[in-house]
Amino acid sequence: MKLLSLATVLALVLAGCNAAHDKSDKPRATSLTSERERASYLVGLDLAKQMQPLADEVDIDLVVQALRSANAHEKLLLGDAEIQTARQQFTRRMREKHAGDRKALAAKNAADGDALLKENAAKPGVQTTASGLQYLTLQDATGPKPNADDTVDVSWIVKRPDGFSLEDSYAAGHSTGFPLNRVPPGVAEAIEQMPMSAKYRFWIPGRLLYGEDGRGGDIGPNQLLIYDIELLAIAGQPGGHPVAD
């Protein structure tokens, strides 16, 4: 949620906040015939989409009242200083709510990940390292293993436990090359377990990946991820293909 952006969008709303409801007698449209009407409706839909995360935080009747009052240049129910104070209070409250929600999600993801690892540990062939990540050998090999400062080339499929695919080298049609000291510690540790030409499945706890920060909208805080990794090459080692850039 982009709180500062939302606060800017809602400046008009905060300008008219009051317990009174707008009593306009203008009938509701049932069809849109002109370009102006369609554009107006589109603006309303876009505003509603931006406000959706705030559905429980604002009174829609007051939102409409503020928009109409500001658009008609009517006397506003808040002065400039009151608008600024209301905006600051609202932004602070939403930041605190967002931080609390994020903390709760981090705790849930960590607990869900621990439960999955506990269940997984009893399955045949699953190994658990000292750090807590788990792996299963899908295709064994006897080649060299990479060191922590090596550059490797892999094909992989990365998924969340719910099956959502984050990355798929096979579908993309190309492998991925990177230095092991440039990836999250859990990924580096995982690949260091593997002989070249082997293929493993890893379950890596969120604390060994992106921690409480998560990564973008698809990887939440403390999110466990599942990696199917095929180690194709280690830079400087014979037997693989050239490491991709």
Given as residue ranges, the uncertain stretches (5+ residues, pLDDT < 50) are 11-23
- CATH names the topology of the largest domain as Chitinase A, domain 3
Which word captures the global form? elongated
Please work out how many helical segments DSSP would assign: 7
Would you tell me the structural class of the helices and strands? alpha+beta
List keywords for this structure.
single chain; 245 residues; alpha+beta; Chitinase A, domain 3; seven-stranded antiparallel sheet
How do you describe this structure in short?
By secondary structure, the protein is an alpha+beta fold. It is built from 7 helices and 7 strands.
Give your account of this protein's structure:
- By secondary structure, the protein is of the alpha+beta class.
- It folds into 2 domains: 3-78, no CATH class; 116-234, Chitinase A, domain 3 (Roll).
- The protein is 39% helix and 17% strand.
- The chain is built from 7 helices and 7 strands; from the N terminus they run H-H-H-H-H-E-E-E-E-H-E-H-E-E.
- It has helices at residues 3-9, 11-15, 35-51, 60-71, 80-121, 169-172, 185-192; strands at 127-128, 134-139, 151-159, 165-168, 176-179, 199-204, 225-234.
- Strands 1, 2, 3, 4, 5, 6 and 7 form a 7-stranded antiparallel β-sheet that branches.
- A hairpin with a 5-residue loop joins strand 1 and strand 2.
- It is elongated and about 80 Å long.
- The relative contact order is 0.13.
- Residues 11-23 have low confidence and may be disordered.
